[in-house]
Amino acid sequence: MFEAERIKLIPTSIFSTMSRLAVEYNAVNLGQGFPDFSGPTWLMDEAYKAMKEGKNQYAPSNGIRSLRLVLSGIAKKYYDLKWNCDNEITITAGATEALYSTITALINPGDEVILFEPFYDSYQSDVILAGGIPKYVTLKKPDFCYDHNELEQAITDKTKMIIFNNPHNPTGRVFSKNEIEFIAELAIKNNLLVISDEVYEFLLFDNSIHIPIATLPDMQERTITISSSGKTFGMTGWKIGFAYATPKLTQAIQKVHQWTTFAVNTPGQHAMVYAFSRLDDYLPEFKNLYQRKRDLIYELILKTKFKPHLSQGSYFMMVDIPEFLNINDVELATKLVKEFGVATIPPSVFYSKSKEGESMLRLCFAKNEETLKEGAKKLQLI
Ligand code: PMP
Ligand code: GLN
User: Fold this and answer.
1) pLDDT digits (tens, 9 = 90+) for 356-366
2) How far is residue 21's CA from residue 69's CA, in Å, rounded to a whole number?
3) How many Å lie between the centroid of ligand 1 and the Cα of residue 222?
């Protein structure tokens, strides 16, 4: 009755819905993407230390300088990207707020924004809230590659931006250099901005290599790179994310950021300075941990009637629903959580153009071994 027009098309997040059902039905939660274990104890100790040292009041709106400095060092060291910590980095309340502030700052009503589907759901809502028009390019089964022609044809004279997520939620794809180059080529040719959501940049399996699109020639100036500490340090509830962009774009993003959250929790930022300063030491163990989980869930699913799509990155895996069940993803996910005690995510909500999502479920494997085994046991009952 009192709602603004612009929220009429905004759905309730599937993650909230499935996690609520998981609690209600006491189900194993392989749905919403978060670890069912905490990040490192030393990181909690650092946050507590910062609190006891009195670092409890507002941080500067763009984030504490020491965190921006350490992040700029990591971009240089890992990707040879130069970002000036004083005017090109913003600390946000998770990648979610970075996405919202960026899209709100840069999209005008009527601007078209290209999304690869399945998309991370906040992109669509953010674009709609800004009055933009989402246009979809499908990552098709079984490889979840995009069709070059489809992407080229989706671009019109109204297109302003492409939103690209790599490593990709929910498919687990890590895009090849060739695929990234083609997106860059089109962005340059058509003078488009690119949001590159790289929250899973360090969650890579086997020999996958992450190539930030901003590292390609002439791309840094038109790319807003977004990432999050929540994934890398297993603390999704701390909600500390980042946006990297040229000074002009950063200024625009910070105009929205200052009236969205103003600043992000201070002790958490101090703890993250320490965490990122020891990233080199931390990453091998982190990667091994998730590689073991990816391998385990893949093996476990092979014993069920679902067909797994091997994940190359992120902590998600798509599985095909057995055809003989003759049921779509939403119906099956509902049945599984209510009757079989396991929560999954029905991915059709991440599609707008294609119906492919109806034939799959998304599983999150950022879970303890026991949770994965327990969840798979329930899926085996199908
Ligand atoms: N982008 C993607 C692709 C994600 O999967 C998520 C959350 N899992 C986010 C953004 C949001 O990240 P944050 O929790 O840091 O807000
Ligand atoms: N990104 C997480 C996922 O894909 C969920 C984050 C959220 O619930 N907002 O499951």
Assistant:
1) 999 999 999 99
2) 42
3) 21
